[in-house]
Amino acid sequence: MAISMQAIRGRRCLRFGAAVLGSIVSAGAASADDFWTLQFGPTGGGYSAVSERQALRELERNPEPGLPTLSPANVKATRDAIQRYTEIVQAGGWPTLPGEQVKPGEQSFAVVMLRDRLAISGELAAGGSRSDVLDGTLVEALKVYQSTNGLTPNGRLDRATIAALNVSAEDRLKQLKTNLSRLSTLTQTTKSHRRYVVVNVPSAQVEAVALNRVISRHTAVVGMKDRPTPVLRSNIYEMNFNPIWRLPPTVIREDLIPQARAAQAKGENLLVKTGINAYDGNGRKLDPAKIDWSSAAPRGYSYRQPAGKDNPLGFVKINFANSESVYMHDSPTDGLFGQNIRAASSGCIRVHNIERLAYWLLGQNDGWDQARVEKMKETGERADVRLASQVPLHFAYITAWATEDGTIQFRRDLYNRDGVAEIATSY
Question: Which CATH code for domain 94-167?
Fold first, then answer.
């Protein structure tokens, strides 16, 4: 099936995950690669290079640039969207679809209701076919709906799509009104920026914007619901190439120590398996075999993982001042980047194709072109580089907005901040 988009938070950062690490320490033979792969999710494989599923995963990993989320023009466009959705609500909203899942070419009574639903929200022309077959025209309209609602555009009436379609018109209107306030505040700042970076957390995407144009858009992994990525405004000032990971206190307390205790109880050593080093209060490196994880002593140690292919920060870390101790970084595995739901970190932002963002940010630093950035990735050379000019950064929480071309966008209310029904948070 051809895929077309033309129509269309020291506190936290990386999570070990008890279930994942528990499976590793019980496996015995798991390598460091296995550790990080398991931690960060499935990495794909097992599919034909030409399969639909792989094509959709690649689409998730490499989104089109599109239009900037924080464009000043989006304020008026969102006001227009509010008027449109007010009219939809006044007219009675839209039908609630049953839970039956339908694939392209299949026949179902739910398809006729889908036609009515998409005609009301505008993805499908009104007065068209009443067929109960999920046919080509309807499939393409459904892909448009999916793409503008942050879903994988597979053209299927699947569980996530049904849930998104069944968010009421009243709740979508409420989201637009809530986000208009957020947009109005943020765009007062971005309109004065020649270039900036925005992380829209609900979209799990990063935009590099120059002169109100998206230069590159990057798939991201954001904070999970119980360790959310914060909303913040800062300036990117430095990059660490092939950085050392210094485990933050929350990760040490909530993840490392409990899981190291579980490993020790099984006669295994977590630090050996992960390549993490422990240091006492005087900075002396400790023998991992002599650490008693059942005692209180490990809570007073610091922990670092050297740079390398298994380091969870990957080959570059992007720094900006903030009170939440979060940062943006690469990842040694890319499995989650191909998933549609990417809320899996402890607050920091993992960025796909981060080398493109890195050399764009370093564009005014002499000698830091694309080739040099890529060489740092290849060689593993350590370097800390300050930007010649700091670049404004926004971590935003925008779940509903319209762009100047009239397209209305919705995303999951990931952290339940819009005050709408739970269905809008969980699809």
Answer: 1.10.101.10
